[in-house]
Amino acid sequence: MVIGADGFQFGEKSIQEANRLAKEQGYDLVLVAPNAKPPVCKLMDYSKFRYEQQRKAREAKKHQKIVEVKEIRMTAVIDTHDFETKLRNAHKFLEKGDKLKVTVRLPYRANQALVDQGKDVLTRFQTGLVEVGELENKITHDGRFLSMVLNPTKK
Question: Domain holding 44: CATH number?
Answer without folding.
Answer: 3.10.20.80
